[in-house]
Amino acid sequence: MNEPPANTTRTTINTGAAVLAWVVPGAGYVMLGDRRRGVLAGGGVLGLFLLGMLIGGVDVVDRAEDTLWFVAQAGAGPVAWVADFANAELVKAGRVGEMIAVPTGDPRVPTYPAVSSLKGVARPNELGTLYCAMAGLMNVAVILDVLGRRPGGRA
Amino acid sequence: MIATTLAYLPFLEPLPGVERIWMLMLLPLALGISVIYKAMKVADLERYWRSVGVMTVQIVLAMTGLAVLLAILVQVVVPMLPAE
After folding, report:
1. Is A29 part of any domain?
2. Beta carbons of A17 and A35 less than 8 angstroms apart
3. Between chain A and chain B, how many beta carbons pairs sit less than 8 Å apart?
4. CB nearest B40 (choices: A56, A97, A145)
5. Given CB atoms, is B46 within the 8 Å cutoff of chain A?
6. Does residue A59 lie within any of the structural domains?
7. Is A124 on the interface with B (CB under 8 A)?
8. What is the per-residue pLDDT across A44-98, written as a single tens digit (0 to 9) for each?
9. Domain coverage including residue A67
10. Complex confidence, ipTM
11. How far apart are CA A101 and CA A147, in angstroms?
């Protein structure tokens, strides 16, 4: 009596696979039984993210100074937080490279806070930031696809 | 250049020489976006790499076309406009 009509299509929402797709890019497809698709999507997301860090250095992921960019980069999963942590602990804390005092030109304020000699600037920083942000945004698209995809088939 | 490359620390400092070839960095970005997008959209993965190649070329051609149009607008059309 309470059975749905035969022509009703049931909406699939794979919450667990979507969460997994954020934690490990591509793993959502693997969980749904599509291993090859997962390897391709995950390899693409992580490849773009790592290439961005290779081009601009780890400084391209900076939660404190580039917050809006980080929102996009965070779509790639915990790897964005790991990169931000590495940037804060290695580069911004001066554990690698050297800290340089920046003169202000204002006698009342002798220097700005020191910055790392490894701080990314100009084109490499812009490109690296863009690559990591695109990786995050594309992984959000992957997560949305995983969310509505039927296990072992099309969305 | 050689000294800069030898002192290079991967992932900690920017890749040496990117400033000179930054426009070519569109190619791996377009390829990466195509790899991810086609992994979602292609039903039959047998034709996957061909569709990735086609989409990469489409992105590069579209971006090049937009750059040419903007260059014409800025270098040719805008200078022809009356000053006031």
Report:
1. yes
2. no
3. 89
4. A145
5. no
6. yes
7. yes
8. 999 999 999 999 999 999 999 999 999 999 999 999 999 999 999 988 888 877 7
9. 15-148
10. 0.86
11. 49
